[in-house]
Amino acid sequence: MSPVLMWALRVALFCLTLGMALALFRLFRGPAAQDRVMAFDCMYICAMLGVMVLGISYRSHTYFEAALLMALFGFVSSTAMAKFLLRGEVIE
Amino acid sequence: MTTLPLWIDLVTAVLVVVGALFALIGAFGLMRLPTFYQRIHPPTLGTTVGVWSIALATVLQFSALEKTASVSAILIPIFVAMTMPITTIFLMRAALFRDRLAGRPVPPNLTVKGNVARAETIDTETVS
To answer: What is the DSSP track for B37-67?
Structure first.
């Protein structure tokens, strides 16, 4: 792996971690519950991208299956929370 | 570790950094904008350009490493593109519902009959 790619992966991981920190700020600060769900959504997307970048840097396929699972469970949980905010219960 | 041609590493590096920067800009907008209806827009930067460019970077890198077309990473952006609108629509409807309950000034619910007539009169008044 060339040093250019190595440094690019480091910079990308730094950016994604910073993005997760900003989303975490909104998660704690957010005035309403829907702001917190939105922040959680942004946070799991950043974490999933971070796992994909780690997969490039370690050259392993396992990380992409982990990223797919993160996308799946993040979708299920944030949709369940949005549905709860809309109706007061998840499954009617 | 095998070494790849330099241009593959360069293209991968550019794609990865662009995707991470777009995700960062989306998170920054989420932190910075004043109302919820503005804040719901910026994270889509991360879910479109961010996910697509990092997935393309992985496809390029792994195809070059294994010397075959390794396109399984494309599943992730396709899945995200299918699921993210559902979450966003649910969240938007929840926010509108909660703001109407709290009596804040948001657009009226158009599935109620009187509200459609009111919205139409408002529309014709503004046009004429």
So the answer is: HHHTSTHHHIIIIIHHHHHHHHHHHHHHHHT
